């Protein structure tokens, strides 16, 4: 299983915002800290806001904060919102399945089990869990200014 870059950016953004606590965070701050395109992060922030993970404050002095407490947000929830699909092999594609051995193949069931196990771990992991040791998670430039 491989998560997309979009999900990676979403997870990084959520961790950054969680670490900042009640202090508002701007997309620009996250973009500069991680060396990620501001335009990409704007799309990510919009999706995370629409899903209720982030709350946005508009206007001068505005920014982002968590939409609910970090201990109530799971990594699995974020992955489900940011991943377009979890089609790890063609036979998971439903009507678009072009696998020649689907009818007789038993591997599909094992792969489904593996994907389910992967998601169980993500569902059992909260944003708070991955942010317990916050300083090492912050980009070097931000961590140095926080010391």
TrEMBL record:
Stated name of the protein: RrF2 family transcriptional regulator
The UniProt record lists the keyword DNA-binding: yes
Keyword Heme: no
Listed SUPFAM superfamilies: Winged helix' DNA-binding domain (SSF46785)
Keywords: DNA-binding
Pfam short name (any one): Rrf2
InterPro entries from the UniProt entry: Tscrpt_reg_Rrf2 (IPR000944), WH-like_DNA-bd_sf (IPR036388), WH_DNA-bd_sf (IPR036390)
PROSITE patterns listed in its UniProt record: HTH_RRF2_2
